[in-house]
Amino acid sequence: MDRTPDEPSDTPGAVSRRPLMIGAALAAAPLAPPGIAAPARAQDAGDGRLRVNLTVNGEARQLSLDPRASLLDTLREGLALTGAKKGCDHGQCGACTVHLDGRRVASCLTLAVQADGRAVTTIEGVAREDDELHPMQQAFIDHDALQCGYCTPGQIMAAIALVREGRAGSAEEIREYMSGNLCRCGAYAGILAAIQDAAPKMRGA
Amino acid sequence: MQPFTYARAESEEAAIRAVSAGGRGTRFLAGGTTLYDLMKLGAETPERLVDISALPGLSGFETAGPRELVFGAGARMSDVAADPRLVRDYPVLSEALWKAASQQLRNMASLGGNLLQRTRCAYFRNGEPFACNKRVPGSGCAAREGIDRGHAVLGGSEACIATYPGDWAVALLALDAAVDVAGPNGARTIPLEALHREPGATPEVETTLARDEMILRVRVPATPLGRASTYHKIRDRESYAFALASAAVALRMEGEVVREARIALGGLATRPWRAREAERELAGRRLTPEAARAAGDAALRGARPGHHNAFRIELGARTVADALLIARQRA
Ligand SMILES: Cc1cc2nc3c(=O)[nH]c(=O)nc-3n(C[C@H](O)[C@H](O)[C@H](O)COP(=O)(O)OP(=O)(O)OC[C@H]3O[C@@H](n4cnc5c(N)ncnc54)[C@H](O)[C@@H]3O)c2cc1C
Ligand code: SF4
Ligand code: FES
Ligand code: FES
Q1: CATH of domain B56-116+164-221
Q2: A204 — contact with chain B (CB < 8 Å)?
Q3: What is the ipTM of this complex?
Q4: Cα–Cα distance measured from residue A2 to residue A164, given in angstroms and rounded to the nearest whole number
Q5: Chain B contacts of A70, Cβ < 8 Å?
Q6: Residues of A in contact with B20 (CB under 8 A)
Q7: CATH homologous superfamily for B225-330?
Q8: pTM (2 decimals)?
């Protein structure tokens, strides 16, 4: 189900002209008509919270959430995973970047309930073993690709995804596909060098 | 943020039923990158969200057909942007997608939601203490006497001069796309050109869609003009910014002579803007830099500056001219 960028889905029904069957039962439809499910198992009684199952860094977690919660706040405040940072809370900076089913997303604009049943990877989950950093983490250290470090978890999560997307082909391409991650300290030169260094190591690994 | 209930739809039919039956406060939710963003700012206040982002029937796209390209409304911007056939045969469509937002957002955002994204006008986004007719009808427009650097020079009204910020709709407009929609009373097809409205006296009404109509897919007629095309986007910075001015162009050339030109403007108008007069003037002419520039001027004819945005009229004309010369190289 998780497509790679250059492999379009050819689900035959996806774009069919099948007319929608919308019947007369419509007028009497209750608020939650058949075919509408609260995510996962049922809305918790009364308090409006929803039970949500996430796999976070390989571990199954069950949470009871206010539907308003962002994935970012859920990770940081519900699960004490404070690696993903809140820079803007509006999709404008990239500090909150995590992977959802292997794809990079802005967790501040992801409703946590929409992640129900899906796999989340945060910066806390990328090192291979306790004592061995991910090649991208190591490269950020080797190339001094940070100053204050606030943007760094988001940069690294974006960079790992970028290499997997096959977008590390040239400096120009890396800059374009890293443009969703701002660095207020201006560590861009080091970030570019780190990605160029880590990309072949990731392929080799 | 105001509380809301959330439910995941199991089919298109069920989603439409739920949104229709739920009444005014019930909305479709796709990637959420517009809707959730504006909910955080209080500019959107839905009471019920019906999530259509996981519907498999909406997420496909097919670019190989001989007669038309078909894009499910739930397809993600990133996947469509990278489609090799689009990159090769319709660069205007691919570029309009990959030059928008960031890869993180493109992984989340759907093609249908993209068409319905709302203006970036800061007064609209932030609300009180600023007046905004789009946010609170009848309250006034703070942009008219405020900072209007990014506001529209085409298609504005007394009530609102907010720019339509999207890129994809502009590229689709140049290629004569249409959207298939369905509501409780059945399905219909809307030409892309008829989907977005100018603000007039009711800037809060942005499209011709009913609240409970769902976009199912976008269709683009297959055309050889696709190859000689580009989406040229000028921003305050090189990437990850909305257009100050953009142009979607596609050409059919015969040697040096333009047989057919398609020109649409982004970032300059209150809606995706087709420049038909410029297209007509260019047809039958040799595509010299002077002719390209004349077409740019024609495209911006009728533009009306505000206080801080007059530079974008000249910028728009040059953007069109450059786009035409880029597209010609691909003919
Ligand atoms: C920081 C930032 C930068 C951005 N830069 C750009 C840019 O440069 N260029 C650009 O073009 N865009 C840009 N965007 C906008 C982005 O592309 C849109 O927010 C996105 O495409 C919306 O899609 P979505 O699936 O997230 O929609 P949602 O937010 O889920 O929905 C948007 C609206 O559409 C409705 N809706 C969604 N799907 C359907 C459907 N199938 N039928 C009927 N109604 C539907 C929803 O009810 C809602 O009103 C940017 C956004 C951000 C946050
Ligand atoms: S330009 Fe439109 S959106 Fe912006 S403040 Fe005026 S009325 Fe509101
Ligand atoms: S905090 Fe999510 S993009 Fe800035
Ligand atoms: S290191 Fe400080 S913001 Fe990037």
Answers
A1: 3.30.465.10
A2: no
A3: 0.96
A4: 13
A5: 36
A6: 26, 29
A7: CO dehydrogenase flavoprotein, C-terminal domain (3.30.390.50)
A8: 0.93
